[in-house]
Hints:
Radius of gyration of chain B: 21 Å
Strand order of the largest sheet of chain B: 1-2
Shape of chain A: globular
Number of helices of chain B: 14
Oligomer: heterodimer
Radius of gyration of chain A: 20 Å
Order of helices and strands of chain A: HHHHHHHHHHHHH
Largest sheet of chain B: 2 strands, antiparallel
Number of strands of chain A: 0
Largest interface: A-B, 49 and 47 residues
Amino acid sequence: MIGDLLEILLTAGFWAATIRIVSPLILGTLGELICERAGVLNLGIEGIMTMGAMAGWMWVYQGGDLWGGIVFAAFIGALFGMFHAGFTVYLGLSQHVTGIGITLFASSLSYYVFRMLLPTATTPPKITPFQPFAVPVLSDIPVIGEALFTQTPLTYLALLSVPAVWYVLERTPLGLAVRMAGENPVAVESQGIDVLVVRTGAVMVGSAFMAIGGAFITMSAFDAFYFGMINGRGWICVALVIFASWRPGKALLGALLFAGLDALQVRAQQLAGAQIPYQFFLMAPYLLSIAAMVVMARRARYPKALLVPFRRGDRV
Amino acid sequence: MRIEARQQVEVWRIVLAPILAVLAALVLGAGLILWAGEAVFASYWALLKGALGSSFAINETLTRTTPLIFTGLAAAVAFRAKFYNIGAEGQLYCGALAATFFGTGLVGLPPFLMIPFLMLVGAIAGGAILIVPVLLKTHMKVDEVVTTLLLNFVILLLVGYLLEGPWKDPMSLGWPQAAPIVDEGIWPPLLAKGRLHLGFVFALIAAALAWALMRFTVWGYEIRAVGLNASAAGFAGIGVNATVIRTALISGGLAGLAGVSEVAGLKGYLTLDLSPGFGYAGIAVAMLAQLHPLGVILSAFFISAVYVGADAMSRTTDIPTYIADVLVGLSVLTILVSVMLTRYRIRWS
């Protein structure tokens, strides 16, 4: 049994699956990370991912092209981010309840829109999703080549966005403003920068990332939109942000570890056959997420102003 | 734009807040009805008639109100202490699992003992599943929203496993459902016709008890104090962690009762589709009630009417039933704003 599992770890198929599974998680985790670094917990993530999955897919199904669908999903995501920020940043309302409300609203609206546009669809209609693109030369490397360089363009985008987000957050004045808005908003204000605008921008960009993560699932991993297909991935991303201590690089590592265990779980399921019921394997990602939060909890360094609304002129 | 606290909050503003929130949600929902090519007033009228237009409809609406009162109370009590228990859906199934485990022949008791016994084990099961998230919150500062949400998925998979495997009723003709609750454990119907059962009365009693708990007892005072300002409550000598843990157990117990009610009161056996999201709708119920346990009764009735009415409406119009979920989600957002406006005013300058 252990030997069989180790053998799986050496197959290119396992690593390719890991990279596939990690892509939407990376996008969602980065999106949540951007919001939280600016001081806003975005629990709308599950609904925004559902919305992105529906919007991007629908764009293509209605005759648009794939990249147009991604842009559209990102736009819709940013729009919901704007709602979220309007509530939590400008009105200073509870970030927990707003997020849950956005999730309830966005996911049910996705289903409503889907049913409106396709009232009679019983078998889910399909689109032609993103096709794998083999990077010349690099894809010829054994194992790594197949795993990393024969993915769909959206996966490359997800992987490249990790260093991009890291660079912007850690090495640019804009990133500094975002991080300060999450740590010490009064200091941002004293620099003449509008905290509310910075936070709103961060939540909108973060939500766009989440929506693209959702769109990955309907436009790259699968080719159809199903009800309940995000299936808690958004909540897993929230857990991954804590696991990553709010750092993009660690987020990639955490997501890879998580996706690897998920890919292993699917294969172990086939190995175990009927001995262990499949439901227990399906539980693994959720239990792992909880475990990940527990492991990192003691060392977790929350952004200091996370969950704290900023009102200009309030005494600190 | 400036946000200023009001000097005093008049009662009429508090009463008006949920009404305005519901109206705002209905107005926003009207856009979706127009998009479906239907007339707004006629559609909402069809919804109202579907929910309250006949004795059958009212019976059905009250039947659906029952679990929503329990899950609404679960959220209302927990949110008061700022413990965001979003796991009522999973706790509901835990209550249902316990009722099924003890109520399908394992224990033999006369009805006047069996019914309270199943409620007790259901409440304990619902509370027990919250022990892990609440201890993680109090002792390791792990956010309870994410842990309770993730547990929902775990519990639903566990129910799926039990219903397809060891607990599957061989008499169910292949459907994944558990054996029926024994006759002694079944909650009797309230009326000769319709599905309304004794659970509705239990739900009303639970709401009254929750109100009394919050209003008149030390525990209730501590829950409110911890929710308003945990560090001040700590300085005043209130055991903050103990209060949060106690609140969580009460909250989970209430959600567990929703599951017992659906199994022993409504269906008679456990299925995988026992709850169409009662746990999540309970959050909307609690928010609309502004976390007031007696208000929960009214808002649960309203949310139930939206669900039952939307079912009827979508049968006669081209509006998808998801309109109900959209309205519920919208009302969580609109009530946040309207409650805020009771306490603050916005100055445009």
